[in-house]
Amino acid sequence: MSFADLLEKVGSMGRFQFVHIIMLSIPVFMLASHNLIQNFSGAVPRHHCRTLLDSNGSYYHNLSETINSQDLLNVFIPMDRKQNQEKCVRFSSPQWNLLNLSGTQHNMTRLETEPCRDGWIYDKTEFSSTIISEWDLVCSSKSLKQMAQSVYMGGVLGGGIIFGSLSDRFGRKSILIWSYLHLAVSGTLTAFSPSFIAYCIFRFLCGMAVSGIILTTLSLSMEWTPTRTRALLGTLNGHCYTSGQLILAGVAYGIRNWQLLQIVVSAPFFVFFLYSWWFTESARWLVLNNKSEVAVKHLKKVAAFNGKKEEGDKITPELLKSEMQREILSAKQALPIISLFRTPTMRRISCCLSCAWFSASFAYYGLAMDLQNFGVSIFLIQVIFGAIDFPAKFSSFLFMTYIGRRATIAGFLIFSGLMILSNIFVPQDMTVLRTAFAVFGKGGLAGAFVCVYLFTSELYPTVVRQTGMGFTNIMARIGAMIAPMVQMTADYFQFLPLVIYGMAPVLSGIIAYFLPETLNMPLADTVDEVENRGKSQIKEEIPLQKEEPAEEK
Description:
The chain is mainly α. 64% of the residues lie in helices and 2% in strands. The chain has 26 helices and four strands. It has helices at 3-10, 15-25, 31-36, 38-41, 58-66, 69-73, 131-135, 143-170, 172-191, 196-223, 230-254, 258-266, 268-275, 283-288, 292-305, 309-313, 317-323, 325-332, 344-368, 378-387, 389-402, 405-422, 431-459, 465-486, 496-512, 527-541; strands spanning 47-49, 89-91, 113-115, 120-122. Helix 11 runs antiparallel to helix 20 (378-387). The relative contact order is 0.11.
């Protein structure tokens, strides 16, 4: 008998699990808001250099009443090649002759310009305030926007490493409670950041908290439910996160001030912090950490809640320890991270999965954090980008079930990369077609995420499964952290970010074909099992050609 069998006795999917999963899932709706909030809080409004027109001088104020404001602005701000006003330079002195009052033309190429020495004026039509207008993150400082998002993803990476080990040491519940409070406080303080540096620090802390919530929520969900429902729970969490993208678009549409938006998406975590004290610590974790008495107490409480009090009363610490000897032994035999690369098949699996996780996350956040470049409403594109995840994840599930894991992950990655690369050849003014390619690309990446998560858990044996999942998640976070920085390459070649975002999943999709197939195969427990399976699959896929003996006449 295992812990799963004990869980069946006290009710593996009773009222307790139903309430438990609902309460754990609600905060997941708000996690997408923190991951993607900078699409709105960091939106770049139209802007131009501050000029004498923007001063309080009565002379220029009177002029603006007699002359069209746009024509008057042309006296101070030059035009670019597309006949739009320059964003980063102004005329060194007013060019009144450009008003063309006398009907003469002027050669603008010889007019002297200078940088925006007095700051910028921002259009507040779409957003009343963003971090861009707050700290002038434009022109020579525009790369700081991408840096801020990379800092946040660095926090997600750090949080995964730190909170992952802390939850194994101090328990799932305590780390989850702390992560809720951590995100509520750091997220709220972000809105009151006195400087851009302070903003980045608080965003880094938010990223850490988000990672802690994701890890501990998944652990608490899985460890209180039976094995047969784990795929369903993983899908549920994914759909909660996807729904959160739609919620973010609606909230951001109603709140155009970045500080207020930041508070609104952070404040609910104070509520989650308060009710999280009701959560029950994982009984499995308690047993594995020599706290069988507390585990028995929790199991009896769950049994009573599920209407199986008599079954719960039969459980004792001694029974719990004896029935979970296999789990306890497996936990003690967990291998270090170097074991992922010691043997040929494990090395091949780790390298291929690292590429898949990295490229999927890299391209996903490269697209998801660049909404303003599609030339359509940023709110509409956020809704479309979120909605595409639903059919993409469902189709990924169908392909995994009937075709296989390897073909699914490779197909989705290659498809996504080709969709992204297609936009290189689409003119900027064809916004509908560009948006369609990007949406299909992001959908493919969402489907790839569903597949690679399940595939990873099936490829690694029990003794290194958690280590392998942790390592590949780190690769994904590194990809997400690097993704915003790639957008800076557009300053050299406008199409270069698309080339990089597109080639990464294509190459990873090709590499994924070297992974062993796991469809309808039991989970491996040891490294030796994985090595034997890998060798047998290679022999099946590349059969040795043997000469047929000549027939006797």
